[in-house]
Design a protein that fits this description.
Elements: E1 6-7, E2 10-13, H1 17-25, E3 31-39, E4 46-54, E5 62-67, E6 71-76, E7 79-84, E8 89-95, E9 99-101, E10 115-118, E11 124-128, E12 133-138, E13 149-152, E14 158-163, E15 169-174, E16 178-183, E17 195-196, E18 201-204, E19 210-216, E20 221-226, E21 230-235, E22 240-246, H2 247-250, E23 255-262, E24 293-299, E25 304-308, E26 313-317, E27 329-335, E28 340-345, E29 350-354, E30 364-367, E31 373-380, E32 403-409, E33 415-418, E34 425-430, E35 438-444, E36 447-452, E37 457-461
Parallel strand pairs: 1-30, 8-34, 13-17
Antiparallel strand pairs: 2-3, 3-4, 4-5, 6-7, 7-8, 9-37, 10-11, 11-12, 12-13, 14-15, 15-16, 16-18, 19-20, 20-21, 21-22, 23-24, 24-25, 25-26, 27-28, 28-29, 29-30, 31-32, 32-33, 33-34, 35-36, 36-37
Length: about 475
């Protein structure tokens, strides 16, 4: 089934509207306004304002009133929603960051974040930069605190960062064709001093920039994808290369993103399938926990390819994008638990697949505009983990699910899509940036994290 793309709306708010509200609460002004804009591709945009004023009786309560075609409401505890009847936009949750981490003044020259990851246990995060440096910071540190550790891991741009499952080791990759392993032990106290960390091991073999990495199981083996059109399997203890896989049906098409996980039991790969019944290849003695794994690769020609690490062969490749179009797949995420694959393209299209029936095409596809998708990650929207308040409207027929996708976009308007079987919809807008491209979005602990071109890392508490 080839799903027709659904057009989702955009609701955005003045990035510092909470500072406006705080001025009203502090009594600096009796009331103030901030802008609210709503968009839907193919329809006239709506630009309105919201007024914030103190309640006459309860001077700790701020009342909101939207005008010029928009509605703005507070749901308490820094939760808000926006609606726009003219564009048919029901109340949409506005998620504000609960923490923002800026680069300290003496390191401000490193502004644009080129790589980002959060430790699985949520204790620290890492950022990479154009000069090849990597910074590691505890999440418990103040907003503008210095990093706990720095490393000049690469000669040029850091392109990928990935914490190992232990949260104490970091895999880095760069435009200098190499990967490195860094120790990432968190500081023992809050009054730490920044330490310099040298790579414990450097992996070389790629002939062009490394673009993405994936860690298999506990991390004895890792994968790397590169613009040289290869995916390489590495042995961490020795730093040696185990196997090279040629992407793009052996045509060495540049690899832009990777996502690995467990293989599923049954599947229908359709006519594009390749060697799906190939016999397993003898495992190299250096391989650990690879026999039941697969890796998906997002390719520059707009297709994605599936490799079975048991056979070391490509078993499926999707059709390529239209010739000459901005069709490159820049983002990709695989959820073994949900049997789901999500891809994001340079033309703003997000597609969802059931991996058990890849040959039938996407089960759902949606876009908001033409802005490139920079990063995507699946999100558990259940009440126990990342559930968002589901705004209610008498005219809304939307039904919430427990399965969502956080999406980072070049236009600086990241959001969370609810992947309900009846159709996708915008569960929450992740606000806070001022038109700066958001390049990365991750999940860890009890939050969703983003990193943008303004050099700020933001954490959203979704509960």
């Amino acid at each position: 089934m080839n799903a027709q793309a659904t057009v989702l709306p955009i609701c955005t708010v003045q990035h510092d509207f909470q500072a406006v509200v705080q001025d009203v609460l502090d009594g600096s002004v009796p009331e103030d306004t901030f802008w609210v804009s709503c968009y839907k591709q193919g329809e006239p945009s709506v630009h309105g304002k919201a007024t914030a004023a103190l309640d006459e009786r309860d001077r700790n309560l701020v009342l909101y009133e939207g005008r010029d075609g928009v509605k703005f409401r507070s749901h308490g505890q820094d939760r808000y929603s926006v609606a726009c009847p003219a564009l048919g936009i029901d109340e949409t949750c506005i998620a504000t960051p609960v923490a923002s981490y800026q680069i300290s003044a003496d390191l401000r020259k490193q502004s644009q974040i080129t790589a980002f990851d959060v430790a699985p246990d949520g204790s620290q995060f890492a950022t990479g930069y154009h000069d090849g440096s990597v910074y590691i910071r505890p999440t418990s540190s103040p907003s503008a605190a210095p990093p706990s550790a720095t490393s000049k891991a690469h000669l040029s741009t850091v392109t990928s960062l990935r914490f190992f499952p232990s949260s104490r080791v970091l895999l880095t990759a760069g435009a200098d064709f190499s990967l490195s392993i860094l120790s990432a032990d968190p500081p023992e106290s809050s009054s730490y001093t920044t330490t310099k960390v040298n790579p414990a091991r450097t992996l070389r073999g790629h002939t062009r920039a490394v673009t993405s990495t994936a860690i298999i199981a506990r991390g004895r083996n890792v994968l790397s994808g590169s613009k040289d059109g290869t995916v390489r399997l590495w042995d961490m203890p020795s730093g040696s290369q185990i196997r090279t896989l040629a992407a793009g049906t052996n045509h060495f098409v540049p690899v832009l993103a990777l996502s690995a996980g467990e293989r599923w039991d049954t599947y229908d790969l359709g006519p594009e399938a390749e060697s799906q019944n190939a016999p397993p290849e003898s495992l190299d003695p250096r391989e650990v926990d690879t026999a039941d794994k697969v890796v998906f690769c997002a390719l520059q020609d707009g297709s994605f390819e599936l490799f079975d690490l048991r056979t070391k062969r490509a078993v499926f490749r999707s059709p390529t994008g239209p010739s000459g179009a901005r069709s490159a797949l820049q983002a990709l995420a695989y959820s073994p638990e949900r049997h789901a694959l999500a891809t994001g393209s340079a033309s703003g299209l997000t597609s969802i697949y059931d991996v058990r029936s890849l040959g039938q095409g996407p089960t759902s596809a949606f876009r908001r505009n033409e802005a490139p998708i920079e990063d995507i990650t699946f999100v558990d929207l259940s009440a126990a983990h990342f559930g968002l308040p589901s705004p209610k409207s008498s005219s809304s027929q939307r039904t919430s699910s427990e399965f969502g996708l956080a999406i980072a976009t070049e236009d600086g308007l990241p959001y969370i899509a609810d992947l309900h079987p009846s159709g996708p919809w915008v569960r929450a807008e992740l606000v806070g940036t001022d038109c700066d491209a958001v390049r990365f979005v991750k999940t860890a602990g009890h939050g969703v994290w983003s990193a943008a071109d303004d050099g700020v890392v933001r954490r959203y508490k979704l509960q």
